[in-house]
Write a structure and sequence with these properties.
By secondary structure, this protein is an all-alpha fold. The chain has one domain. It has 4 helices and no strands. The longest helix has 8 residues. The radius of gyration is 10 Å and the shape is globular. The termini are far apart.
């Protein structure tokens, strides 16, 4: 359950990049669902390189 909750708190830019298929193709669901920072700015730095 906690993994699902983590994915619902993703920054909107990350969700948009996933839907538009412009996010790093090597990024996995496991990486997104574990160890995701709570602060959206940190998420952007980590996942939107």
């Amino acid at each position: 359950m906690s993994r699902c909750l983590t994915l619902t708190t993703l920054a909107l830019e990350i969700v948009q990049a996933i839907l538009e298929e412009t996010i790093n193709p090597g990024l996995t669901l496991m990486e997104l669902s574990t160890g995701t920072p709570l602060l959206r700015e940190e998420q952007r730095r980590k996942f939107l390189r």
